[in-house]
Amino acid sequence: MYLADKWTDYRVLDTGDGMKLESWAGKILSRPDPQVIWPKQQPDMWERAHAVYHRSQKGGGEWEKRQSLPESWTIRYSDLSFIVRPTGFKHTGLFPEQAVNWDWMRGLVRDSGRPVSVLNLFGYTGGATCALAAQSAQVTHVDAAKGMVAWAGENRKACGIDETKVRWIIDDAVKFVQREIRRGRRYDALLMDPPSYGRGPSGEIWKLEDELYPLVELCAQVLSDRPLFMLINSYTTGLQPAVLSNMLRLTVMKRVGGSVEADEVGLPIESGGVLPCGASGRWTR
Question: Where are the domains positioned within the chain?
């Protein structure tokens, strides 16, 4: 398992009964997690929550604030700073488990000894973008949601990263990659964090099981002659690590060689055990 166990500002305190109790730089949030099918290990601890997220039967949900909680605040990881902002869809603007992939990618960029251009598809609020740009990579950040790209820009500023290190693109990921191929533009590394289901800026429907393999196949064509890495993240329960491994092997590895590995991604739980957080497939030269 790829375990994100180097956080100091973020901790999973306890899990149980379909919920997870997290500390975000001292602000304690209780949020749903459908994979948590076991009972709470430390029930009394949950009374410390500053806010609890309740799902709505009509979709979405809302936060119940039990203690004073700011609209947003900052959390740090290593040399990076991110703005946390609880949203109406239970998210906070950051996936802490991805820190293990940030470290992996930054190590490859650092050890490459050369300038590295990175394409980040479905870039969300820019966790990976900031991690890579802070490591001297030149990043193109693509997301269909204007608000998420704006949030990513806030994170860039919070990290103190020069604005010239990131190119911001508000666009459908597939259409953007197709245009980059026609333009002859290539990247040394590529990562994607696609949603299970979503819509593009013009209403295009995205369903991961149908769209992911064609996208990975397409992305293999936008890699440079000396690509460094490619990363696929998946939060869809049905897509096991072996599925991601097979896709990378049949596309990127078939085209340029290298090696592939894939595994679950997780976070340590302070009350015991590990919280599963999807899977990642990694290709390296």
Answer: 2-84, 96-284
